[in-house]
Amino acid sequence: MQSTRPSITIFHNPACGTSRNTLAMIRNSGEEPRVIEYLKTPPSRETLRELLAAMAMAPRALLRRKGTPYDELGLDDPKWSDEQLLDFMLAHPILINRPIVVTPIGTRLCRPSEAVLDILPSPQKGPFTKEDGEPVIDAEGRRVERAA
Asked: Is 16 designated active site?
């Protein structure tokens, strides 16, 4: 009997365009991921540590500044330890940058959203255009290169 558990998880914020585009690309590959709205259901300290380890990322690198209490909390001060930064992220989940996607191939902060293409186990099933009109996948299923 085959497992019905999704092989992909996205830590998602539906108010974020990058997160919505990433989720749409996962679905365009034929997968229905486990969607965790991390502002409603924040990750535990252990989950946050596991995600950071899988991405080979320090807590400071996962902090989001825009639209968060980052500046008011003085988080750019190097005095904060990794554990203290985790405390801030747990107290204020909006500080966790998103979307984070976990697949059998890897774990990645998908900024820009098309970074998810590198860790999806299945190719895109059809063309894909971001919400802002930027094409990502063409009609032949090939990645559209961004103009430099």
From this structure: yes
